[in-house]
Design a protein that fits this description.
transmembrane helix, transmembrane, mainly alpha
C-alpha cells in the first residue's frame, strides 16, 4: 500500500504541487477574516496541525523516526524555525505596510532559492527556466498593482519584514528539499511542524500573547486555515520535496497571487482590475514556460543517464 501511494505521488507530483499552491493562496482570505494576532494564529495553526503527523508517525513509523540521523534532526528543526520566521514575518508585514508591497516582496523567494541553487549548491539551472521564473515574478508585480503610490505609502519596516518572509520561505524550502533526501515525508513533516510549534509556543510565552478568549468564528476559521493551508499546502509541499526540486515548488508558489485573485472573486466578490488580469496572464505564461523547459531538461538528463 505504501509503495502504491509513493508511486501515485511520484507520478502526479507536479500537479499535486499546483493544487497545494491553490490551497496556500487562500491564506490571505483567512488572515483577513481572523481578528486574532499573528502569534496566536501561528500557535493554534501548528497546535492543530502537528497531531495530523505526530499520531501516525509515533504509532506506525517509530523505526523511521529513530533512524533519523542527528544531522537531519537538527536540520529538520532548522527548517521549522525558518517556517516560523516566514509565518511571523508575513503576518506582521501585512499589518505594517501596503498589502501590494508585501505581496511583491514576499513572492521573491524563488530568487532566493535560485541563487542558492546556482551559487551554493552549484547545480545547473537552464537559461529558459530562469527566464520563466523572472517573467512570473514580473507578472506578480502587476497582480499586486505595485506602483509609485504603493511604494511611497508603504511602511519601510513592513517592507523589510515582507522581504524577510521571502528569505525565510526560500531557506525553508531549500532545507526541506535536502533533508527529504534522507528522511521519509511524514517523519520530516512531523519534525518540521513540531519545531515550528515550539517556536510559536516560546514566542507566545515570551510576548504574553493572548491564546484564549477569541470568538467562535475566529477558532473555526483557524481550524479551516490549518486544514487548507497548513495541511493542504505546507505539508504537501514538504511531501513533494522527495520527488521535485525546491526550485520547482518555489517557482509555482510564486503564482499564488493569481489563485488568490480567483478565490477573492469567488468568496469575497472582489473584481480584479485590468492590471491584475494582465499580471495574472503573465504569471501563468511565465510558469508554463518554466514548467515546459524544466520538463525538457529532465527528459534530456534521463536520456543522458
Amino acid at each position: 500500500m505504501a509503495e502504491e501511494k509513493k508511486s501515485f505521488l511520484a507520478k502526479y507530483v507536479k500537479i499535486i504541487v499546483i493544487f497545494a499552491v491553490i490551497a496556500g493562496s487562500s491564506s490571505g482570505i483567512f488572515g483577513k477574516a481572523i481578528s486574532a494576532g499573528s502569534m496566536a494564529i501561528g500557535f493554534w495553526r501548528l497546535t492543530l496541525g502537528v497531531p495530523f503527523f505526530a499520531v501516525p508517525v509515533l504509532l506506525n513509523m517509530r523505526d523511521e523516526l529513530k533512524a533519523v540521523s542527528r544531522k537531519d534532526l537538527i536540520w529538520s528543526f532548522v527548517a521549522g524555525a525558518f517556517l516560523f520566521g516566514h509565518f511571523f514575518s508575513w503576518y506582521n508585514a501585512v499589518k505594517m505596510t501596503d498589502i501590494a508591497s508585501a505581496v511583491v516582496l514576499a513572492a521573491l523567494h524563488p530568487l532566493v532559492v535560485l541563487l542558492v541553487t546556482i551559487f551554493i549548491f552549484k547545480r545547473h539551472v537552464g537559461r529558459r527556466p530562469i527566464m520563466g521564473i523572472i517573467l512570473a515574478l514580473l507578472g506578480g508585480v502587476l497582480v499586486a498593482g505595485l506602483d509609485y503610490r504603493h511604494l511611497s505609502s508603504g511602511n519601510f519596516k513592513g517592507d523589510i519584514l515582507a522581504f524577510a518572509a521571502a528569505v525565510f520561505m526560500g531557506v525553508y524550502f531549500l532545507v526541506g528539499n535536502e533533508v527529504r533526501k534522507n528522511v521519509v515525508g511524514p517523519v520530516y513533516v512531523f519534525l518540521c511542524f513540531f519545531a515550528c510549534w515550539v517556536c510559536f509556543a516560546v514566542g507566545s510565552a515570551a510576548t504574553h500573547t493572548q491564546l484564549l478568549g477569541y470568538s467562535t468564528k475566529d477558532y473555526l476559521l483557524i481550524v479551516l486555515l490549518t486544514l487548507v493551508c497548513q495541511i493542504g499546502a505546507h505539508a504537501v509541499f514538504n511531501l513533494c520535496f522527495g520527488y521535485v526540486d525546491s526550485l520547482y515548488v518555489s517557482a509555482w508558489e510564486s503564482g499564488e497571487s493569481v489563485f488568490a485573485i480567483i478565490l477573492s472573486f469567488i468568496f469575497l466578490g472582489e473584481i480584479p482590475t485590468s492590471w491584475e488580469l494582465l499580471g495574472a496572464a503573465i504569471v501563468v505564461i511565465g510558469l508554463l514556460y518554466y514548467n515546459h523547459y524544466t520538463g525538457l531538461e529532465e527528459k534530456e538528463n534521463e536520456l543522458q543517464s
